[in-house]
Amino acid sequence: MDYDTPLFFHVMSYAMEAEHDVIDMVSGNPDWGSPPGISDGLHEYADLGGADFQYPPSEGLRELREEIAARRDVDQSQVVVTCGGGEANYLAMARAMERESGDEFILTDPVYPYYPGKTKMLGATARFVATDEDGTLSPEAVREQASENTAGIVVNSPNNPTGAVYDEETMREFVSIAEEYDALLVSDEVYDHFDFSGKFTSALSFDSDNRIVTNSFSKTLAITGFRVGYAIFPPELVDVAKTRHMLTNVATSRPAQYAVLHALRETTPEYHEENRQLLKSRVETFTSALDAAGADYSEPDGAFYVMARFPDFPGTLSNVEKLIDEAGVAGMPGEAFGSSRDDWVRFALVTPEVEEAAERLADYFG
Amino acid sequence: MDYDTPLFFHVMSYAMEAEHDVIDMVSGNPDWGSPPGISDGLHEYADLGGADFQYPPSEGLRELREEIAARRDVDQSQVVVTCGGGEANYLAMARAMERESGDEFILTDPVYPYYPGKTKMLGATARFVATDEDGTLSPEAVREQASENTAGIVVNSPNNPTGAVYDEETMREFVSIAEEYDALLVSDEVYDHFDFSGKFTSALSFDSDNRIVTNSFSKTLAITGFRVGYAIFPPELVDVAKTRHMLTNVATSRPAQYAVLHALRETTPEYHEENRQLLKSRVETFTSALDAAGADYSEPDGAFYVMARFPDFPGTLSNVEKLIDEAGVAGMPGEAFGSSRDDWVRFALVTPEVEEAAERLADYFG
């Protein structure tokens, strides 16, 4: 497994090329629409022109950094506005390698496939820690893999693909394992607005020089195409990260930053609450149908995904294609996420047709 | 010298903190305004919402890649749309290192400071080739530095900071030196629309598996803040570059890509011609004043910059600060661009106050 895109694109185009109607539950693109502040902000920006169309500060528009810093209760100098969560994780993992305190990353299995991809690109080695079947990641299991070779520990809560949300005690332990082994905890929290359990705890809750928090507005504001995210570094790690950001991208796209800033100021908590309620009801609809299909499934505490295991129907690529052909539902093969879930299929609940998809699966397997 | 930003920001903030009026000739931000297609495109995009706000293809919007490919007469599969020229050069130089055919980059002196910055970030070594005083870069001098350790040769034409434009024969030689030493020529052509000499030749003119061309819409469309550029790779090098692009940024910001596509379709050649004429007349105004000041100066064949050397006034940081304080004109110290021009100052002709700046310098030194 290198990174998910070849497989991802393969499944996407297989589904799109099908002549019958296929419900796309492959991608993680929200379908519930952005808050109006995004369009309003873009319109406002489009009329500025001139100097406002030129380079923003490399680390991000000052007012956007201030807004993020105020919300996250950190100093704005610790914030780097990035080209989405993708660049935020790249900067964080590169920063871990630059410390020259180990060249291994501890990753989970199942894993969000970009992490092993970045690990390889950075010339590091991945050590995988299997989660429990319910997606729980035991700090003890992480500690067993930690050593002086550990450069970083990369965790994602709420989790893609398992839907697990790590509680306060677990996150505290991850931070302290990182400290113990002079490594960096990279806590990817892009689904933080999609916690159904109330137990989500940001790694920022624990004061430490050994943790970097990454985040993005891609999911929060349903703008995966805008590419605006951020990373929050401990004070003594941030300067080198800013240098890499500058030498890689110079800066993050300004129209997108401007629209995000505008939307952050205008969007009420109700927007996020409605999206959570929508997702919770989709989870219910979908998992009821999985019951009818006789499948095992994850019950997500957060994020957008349900993993399912159908009886005598392992989630291989060829079975995923069969589901597309015969049931008209497209999911992601479990093998995209590591070895521990290769008999599962991941379904993204980002389509208004969740109910129809659920019925199709229940009919197919029922 | 690491990369120019600390010095750049130092000079910028020194100029901005001055209590008197200072004319900013430090940054490379065009002041002549974007073509209307940029704002129009952003407005159009802002109203799309929904699926159009989500992930574009990682390598860039299909129609934008097709537009670029048609204009550059390459196959669209060779095009990667990047976060500006900055990421394009990063991908190109990283690609040269990934071939494991050398770990040195041949750079010019004076040099655009991001190239040595990226060289260092990629763990490579820079070998500098001094240009002639008029900015000419001799292929012979490049060949003398080339060896089996050469991973890449990075050139920039029209050149920042010298204003040199390499002619057809010179570019052909650079390509053939790269081929000879199994290295990659990285030809950064972001100022291609600002050639006053008519002799600009793209490295794409020479069919070769050893050259990558990078470009950007930052200068061409006066949108340095949008961060849309591209790199054109030989067919057998492009896949790995696309992987790095995906693992670094996932994709380039979609609103900015959409606006660029719209502007490419709407903008007439007159827009570019007017900007060239404007710059040519600024060069004349400015260099006449430099004559009056008794200075040596570069006569740019392209790009936005004039380098000047004043009698008994080397272009050190402290003298640049003195010019800000006493003449009210801010330029960049020559030392930002390497050792060969450390007695020069670079002035960017991106302000309507070029004439006033010229008068101030003539008065100060006259």
From TrEMBL, chains A, B:
Record keywords: Aminotransferase, Pyridoxal phosphate, Transferase
Top EC class of this enzyme: transferase
The protein's Enzyme Commission number: 2.6.1.-
One Pfam family from the record: Aminotran_1_2
GO biological process, one term: amino acid metabolic process
GO molecular function: pyridoxal phosphate binding; transaminase activity
Residue span(s) of domain Aminotransferase class I/classII large: 21-361
Transmembrane domains' residue ranges: none
Cofactor: pyridoxal 5'-phosphate
Assembly information from the UniProt record: Homodimer.
Family: Belongs to the class-I pyridoxal-phosphate-dependent aminotransferase family.
Annotated protein name in UniProt: Aminotransferase
Organism for this UniProt entry: Haladaptatus litoreus
